[in-house]
Structures are given as structure tokens and as C-alpha cells.
């Protein structure tokens, strides 16, 4: 081999012209320092960038645990609302006597009315009740006899330890129609005159399919797995490749060894047959834990490392074009997706939504419409904001979101804000990014109309299809935007401040690409016009990643 190399240099290189030899020497003189610099930078930056990627995965796992906790908290909210309800307490008191047919029928009617009022808890699939045959005269799809718990060998743990809420999995139920496998919370009900006697149960069901989708929406890579486990480490729900089949790869007791109760943490260990990042986060609402397993090799070859290398190699444009161009496009696509998911994961108003429901029930009980009517509007607004964890929303729901926002503002400003909409029916089922129009409307209200002396005005929203694109126009007759402020909004992203327009512009760029965006026109004293150009996408549309 050495002889062949010597022969090559002695024959080929010797016969080259002087200009060609100089070019080769110049090329080596440029490439060698670049390669050396790349190696040095990679060596020093690899650790810090890898730590950042690990923390991003850990952050996603914490947001997933927070979302699950908010959903499971709805079960506790339901039981609290029912225990405060006058009709429900009358049913509990009737457990002390043998009711006749008409009293049993009355109890069923009361329970049916109560079940109807619980439909606002969107994360919950179904609420069921267990009572003795002295309380209800017939059992239906959500009404069961108390004896069934013991006859079917259900919930032996809670039967032995009354007073504790208990979570269990129901499969292949013989009488409940609709839905599928559920994760259910059982809440015992006690005799008001003897708190040691269990007279019934409230059962709150969550569809396993919904829980799986919630978990998988936060998994950072295609090979990641997520497990919702109870205190014993038994798997209650899971998500990941092939549904994340199988038990917990590492026993929960081993993961929690030496850790405090309720502690959030992550660690690297051998699992899934390779080095794996394990993120453990408590879900207090059910006394559970959410455990994410992500192969370490998936993190090491993540987009951030490729971006570091591409940024360093930009010193030599030719090298980037020839060697790293494709990797850079792929990296930007994956990085964009991660940025979007982290941005949406910060929108987490579940805790406020649950609190509003409790206050709303109290207001209804006290017959205070001036309280519960705006609360219902606000609860509906937050439900649309949560959007079942989806980053996309239909145009119809986004416009409803805006209508509720204006309704709430008008409660404060004496109906001084008028909303007009003009759209064609074919745009209503199209999908856009969630919370895309609402910040623009909020700017029009706060910075436009409410700064007028009379604090009143009109906002007009139009939506149309133009050349295959969905075009929104939001106009107001407020005070307008001063030229110097408008220049900042339309200028560099590092100079843009206030009004939240840069956030919207960046979300559109990340999700759809630079072909779409936002434009703003405004004259002081005349109002502001904001126009958004988006792709016309329908539900289920698979958007190609940038660079494809």
C-alpha cells in the first residue's frame, strides 16, 4: 500500500502542472484548518449541546405528566362537585331506608340529570354510579348495583380499604356499550349517619386510547416509549412503538431507589437493550408516575448536534453545500417540530379550567347567573384553548374562540366591542394553528379600540380562499399603530417588541415555511389591518417536512 502511494505521488503528482500543484496545496491549506477547527469545536461543544437535548427531552416528559395530571384531576373535580350537590346528598341519605318504586325512579332521574351536567369534563369518557337495589330500581349503562362489585370480584383492594380512591383498568365490559378499554377511578360513598359504612361508588372512566394519544403526543422520538404506572409499578397506560407493549423495562422500585416521594428526575441506564435516557415524573392526581424511555443514540444524533457542525462548517461554503446541505435541511425540519411542541407545551391552563368548573357549579347552586354565565363562557374559551392537546384547530372553532373572548371583554366594557365576520362556508372545516388569530384580536381590542376615548369600536374578520391559500384579514377602527412601533414590528425579530406579532410570525414560519406569513398595515387614528396567508389544509392532512 505504501509503495502504491509513493508511486502515485511520484508519477501523478510529479507530472502535474505548477498551477495544479499550487491549487492542491492551497486547497489542503484551507481544508486542514477547517477540519481541525471543526474537530476542536465539536469536542468542546458536544457535551453542552447534548445536555441541552437531554433537558429538552426531560422538559417534554414533565409537560406530558402535567397534562395527564390535569386530565386526571377532572375525576376528583367530578366527585367534589357531586358531594356538594344537594340532590346527590339526598340520594345518599336514602340509602338508610328501603325506597319504594317511585323513590327509586326519582333517584334515577336525579342521577341522570347530574350525569348530564358532567359532560363539560371533556377528558372524561363516562361517569358511572354503584348503589344498592334499595336505592335504584334498575341498572343501565351507567347505573349499577353495588353487589356487582363483589360478585364480579372487582375492586377487592378498595373493598378491604374503604376511604381511598382507587384506579383500575376495565376491559371487555359485558354491559357498557361504546368506547373501549378504560382507566377508571373508583370513589367510595359513605353513609352520612355512619361514615364506616360504604353505600355506593362513583366511577370515572378515561378511554385508554385517549390516554395513549396524550402520552404519544409528547414522546420526543419515534423509538421513545411512555408508561403510566401506579405505586406498585403496574402499567395503567402506555404509548410508543406498537403501543409500547410489555411491562416497564426497569422495575419502578429500582428507578425510585434513593429518591424522595414526588421527585422529578432523569437518569441514563441500560434499558430497552441499550443505553437509555429514563425520565420519571409524578402524576399526583392518581398517585401515579409517568416514565419515558428514550434510546440515547436517538438523542446523540439529534438535530442540535448537526446544527452545531453545520454552523461551524459554514466557514467553508463549498463543504456545506457538498457534504452537509442535506443534513442541515433535515436538522432544521426536526428542530422546527421540537420548537413548535415546546411552544405549545407552555400553554397549560388546565388548572384554571378545573377551578372555573368548581366555581361555576357553586354559582349555579346559588342561582347567580351574573356569575355562572361569564364563567361558562370562560370555561368554553379555555376548552377551545386546550383543544385536546392538538396544535391544530378548525377555523370554525378558532372563530368561536374569538367570539367568546369578545363576549367576555364586553362584560367589562358595556358591549362596546362589536365583532363582524365574513367567510365562505368552505373555509370553516380547514385547519390552522391553534391560538393564531386570538392574539391578533386581543391586540386590536387592547391596543386599538380600548385606547379610543369612548372605548368602543368594531373588529371585522374575513376568511377566504385565494390561489390555493387560506387568507385571514383582521381589521379594527382603533387608534392605529404609531409608525415607529410599526417599523419595529415589521423589522428585525430582535427589535420587535410588544403586540405579540413576532410570536405569530415565528410560529407560521416554523409550521408552514417562509412562503406564508403575516402583513400589517396601520394609520394612526384610522385603525389597523392584519392579513395572514396560510396553506389551505384539511383535517388529516400530512404536511411535508421542510426540505422534502
Strand composition percent: 15-25%
| Sheet/helix structural class | alpha+beta
The largest sheet has its strands arranged as: 2-1-5-4-3
Low-pLDDT windows of residues: 159-163, 315-335, 342-351, 493-499
Distance between the termini: 42 Å
Topology, number of strands: 17
Q: What radius of gyration results from the CA coordinates?
A: 30 Å
For the sheet with most strands, the description reads: 5 strands, mixed
Overall average pLDDT = 77
| Apparent shape | flat
Q: Helicity range of the residues?
A: 40-55%
Q: How many individual helices? A: 17
Structural features, described:
This protein is of the alpha+beta class. The protein is 47% helix and 22% strand. It contains 17 helices and 17 strands. The protein has helices at 2-15, 18-83, 86-94, 101-117, 147-151, 156-160, 208-216, 252-256, 296-300, 303-312, 317-345, 350-365, 369-386, 395-412, 438-448, 483-490, 501-512, and strands at residues 126-131, 143-145, 166-170, 182-191, 194-207, 225-229, 235-239, 265-271, 274-283, 288-295, 392-394, 417-423, 431-433, 457-466, 469-476, 517-523, 527-535. The strands form 4 sheets. It has a 5-stranded mixed sheet. Helix 2 (18-83) runs antiparallel to helix 10 (303-312), helix 10 (303-312) packs antiparallel against helix 11 (317-345) and helix 13 (369-386) packs antiparallel against helix 14 (395-412). The longest helix has 66 residues, at 18-83. The chain is flat.
Amino acid at each position: 500500500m505504501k509503495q502504491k502511494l509513493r508511486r502515485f505521488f511520484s508519477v501523478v503528482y510529479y507530472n502535474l502542472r505548477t498551477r495544479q500543484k499550487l491549487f492542491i496545496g492551497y486547497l489542503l491549506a484551507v481544508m486542514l484548518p477547517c477540519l481541525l477547527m471543526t474537530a476542536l469545536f465539536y469536542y468542546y461543544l458536544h457535551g453542552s449541546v447534548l445536555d441541552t437535548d437531554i433537558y429538552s427531552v426531560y422538559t417534554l416528559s414533565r409537560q406530558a405528566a402535567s397534562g395527564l395530571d390535569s386530565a386526571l384531576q377532572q375525576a376528583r373535580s367530578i366527585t367534589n362537585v357531586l358531594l356538594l350537590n344537594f340532590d346527590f346528598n339526598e340520594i345518599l341519605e336514602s340509602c338508610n331506608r328501603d325506597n319504594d318504586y317511585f323513590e327509586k325512579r326519582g333517584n334515577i332521574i336525579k342521577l341522570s340529570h347530574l350525569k348530564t351536567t358532567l359532560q363539560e369534563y371533556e377528558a372524561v369518557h363516562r361517569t358511572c354510579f354503584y348503589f344498592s337495589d334499595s336505592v335504584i330500581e334498575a341498572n343501565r349503562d351507567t347505573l349499577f348495583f353495588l353487589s356487582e362489585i363483589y360478585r364480579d370480584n372487582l375492586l377487592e383492594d378498595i373493598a378491604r380499604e374503604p376511604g381511598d380512591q382507587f384506579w383500575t383498568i376495565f376491559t371487555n365490559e359485558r354491559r357498557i356499550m361504546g368506547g373501549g378499554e378504560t382507566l377508571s377511578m373508583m370513589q367510595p360513598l359513605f353513609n352520612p349517619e355512619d361514615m364506616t359504612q360504604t353505600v355506593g361508588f362513583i366511577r370515572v372512566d378515561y378511554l385508554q386510547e385517549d390516554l395513549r394519544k396524550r402520552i404519544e403526543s409528547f414522546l420526543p422520538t419515534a423509538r421513545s416509549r411512555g408508561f403510566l404506572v401506579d405505586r406498585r409499578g403496574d402499567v395503567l397506560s402506555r404509548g410508543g412503538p406498537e403501543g409500547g407493549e410489555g411491562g416497564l423495562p426497569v422495575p419502578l422500585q429500582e428507578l425510585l431507589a434513593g429518591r424522595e416521594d414526588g421527585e422529578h428526575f432523569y437518569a441514563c441506564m441500560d434499558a430497552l437493550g441499550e443505553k437509555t435516557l429514563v425520565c420519571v415524573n409524578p402524576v399526583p392526581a392518581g398517585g401515579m408516575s409517568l416514565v419515558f424511555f428514550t434510546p440515547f443514540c436517538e438523542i446523540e444524533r439529534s438535530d442540535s448536534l448537526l446544527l452545531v457542525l453545520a454552523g461551524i462548517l459554514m466557514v467553508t461554503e463549498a463543504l456545506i453545500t457538498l457534504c452537509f446541505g442535506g443534513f442541515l435541511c433535515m436538522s432544521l425540519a426536526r428542530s422546527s417540530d421540537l420548537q413548535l411542541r415546546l411552544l405549545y407545551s407552555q400553554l397549560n391552563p388546565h388548572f384554571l379550567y378545573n377551578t372555573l368548573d368548581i366555581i361555576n357549579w357553586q354559582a349555579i347552586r346559588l342561582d347567580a347567573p351574573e356569575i355562572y354565565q361569564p364563567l361558562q363562557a370562560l370555561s368554553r374559551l379555555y376548552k377551545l384553548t386546550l383543544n385536546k392537546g392538538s396544535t391544530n384547530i378548525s377555523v370554525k372553532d378558532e372563530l368561536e374562540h374569538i367570539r367568546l373572548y369578545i363576549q367576555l371583554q364586553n362584560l367589562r366594557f358595556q358591549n362596546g366591542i362589536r365583532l363582524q365576520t365574513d367567510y365562505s362556508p368552505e373555509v370553516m372545516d380547514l385547519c390552522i394553528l391553534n391560538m393564531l388569530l386570538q392574539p391578533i384580536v386581543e391586540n386590536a381590542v387592547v391596543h386599538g379600540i380600548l385606547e379610543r376615548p369612548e372605548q368602543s369600536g368594531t373588529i371585522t374578520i374575513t376568511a377566504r380562499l385565494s390561489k390555493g391559500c387560506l387568507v385571514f384579514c383582521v381589521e379594527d377602527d382603533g387608534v392605529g399603530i404609531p409608525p415607529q412601533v410599526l417599523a419595529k414590528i415589521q423589522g428585525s425579530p430582535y427589535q420587535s417588541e410588544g403586540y405579540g406579532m413576532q410570536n405569530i410570525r415565528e410560529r407560521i414560519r416554523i409550521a408552514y415555511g417562509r412562503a406564508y406569513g403575516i402583513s400589517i398595515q396601520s394609520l394612526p387614528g384610522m385603525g389597523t389591518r392584519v392579513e395572514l396567508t396560510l396553506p389551505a389544509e384539511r383535517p388529516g392532512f400530512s404536511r411535508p417536512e421542510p426540505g422534502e
